[in-house]
Amino acid sequence: MRTLLFNTTVKYFFLIAFLCNALSCAVNPVTGRKQLILLSEDQEKAMGLQSDPEVIASFGVYNDQELQNFITTKGKAMGKISHRPNLDYQFKVLDSPVVNAFAVPGGYVYFTRGIMAHFNNEAEFAGVLGHEIGHITARHSAQQYSNQMLAQIGLVAGMVISPKLAQFGDLASQGLGLLFLKFSRDHETQSDELGVEYSSKIGYNAHEMADFFSTLKRLSGDQGGIPTFMSTHPDPGNRLKRVHELATQWQQTNGSANLKVNRDGYLRMIDGIVYGEDPRGGYVENSIFYHPELKFQFPVPQNWQLQNMASQVQMASQSGKAVMIFTLGGEKSLAEAGQKVSSQQGMQVKDRQNVTVNGLPALAMVVDQQNQDGSIVRALLYFIDYDNRIYTFYGITAANDFNNYARFFENTMMNFRRLTDQSKINVKPERIKIQTVKTDGTLEQALRSFSTPDARLKELSIVNGMELNERVTKGMLIKTVTK
Questions:
Q1: 397 and 454 share a domain?
Q2: I need a labelling partner for 189 at 20 to 30 A (CA). Which of 241, 259, 317, 352 fits?
């Protein structure tokens, strides 16, 4: 057993050595140390180029040119002083209420309007901007990819030698994500350090970055869950304390004079930004999904979870055994849509009928597809011709469960109809409104003076990055919410 393990280890390290010689161990731009990276810079750029349209299709771009110009200007300036100034950095504001920012390889950085609404000054934004650019400059995605590939190599080598391990190959592969979670936390620590460095180099007070992480922690407690930023950016522990220490060290070494915060200018810039869900892109009320812009509606099954994305609406049963997807297809006719399905390899058409859905011409199909394990997935498809567009419903479940869920699929699909109710069409989103404090007092008193309901006081205190009992002064700008 020991001999077998030794031989496997020797082979593995010889393989690593071979890869290092064949691919040349890259020098990390941030650390200056050599490391085995199986993803070239050109491949990183290609990944970003491929991912960008997928990100935009999922979230949509928020239409605010001033805000877009702001993040592009600050982002380009930061890119120039980063460890990888040669990259063509791209920065975009996404039309999503979630509080998140993220980066993909090749220089693509995204901020949601949700996180932009929660920043309270330019320095907070700059700190998070530096953090995200840090993920790119330190090649964290490339490292993660390489680690997983090397683990797969080791796993495959073990399978060749040990048939017993091969039996559990799928399970072992699924565990790789958990195995490398610690690397993500290490990456977060490094990106925090780079966030302090980069934001300071372009003239901002990095202490504000730590204060924003405090806002994120409060969001976690207020919402009873983990904000998206926190779930995609694992907290390495003692983050607030560490970032404050890093900011202090930087300022002591490089000087702290004239470091910017720019609170009022930032708040005036986001005055009017959409806050929370935007009903213009679709909303649910009393188990009915309404789309005011495209003027249609359809029922959502009771107790099903719904996610409304820019490109599709997803609905899932509580059990997770059935899912419905609603999307706008690219086909020009019902016939074309049906032919596209029928021609797909491995797709078996069980039934096909021309029907009408509340006066609209439609095509209904039942199709089966066999998985590699031999199981059969069955789907009910409805293609509906409405306003010269082909809308598509997919109701998908295991063939054995199809009869249990067919009635839910049919009820939603057969009740698609034109939206004519003006009260549903003329809905407006909530927006951030910047107000000027009238008198000295507490944040709570100021919010109450602008008719903030009791139930939303805590929410608005988090949006303002303050506690309700914190002092505000006459003439100070704060955020409120209005329609």
A1: no
A2: 259
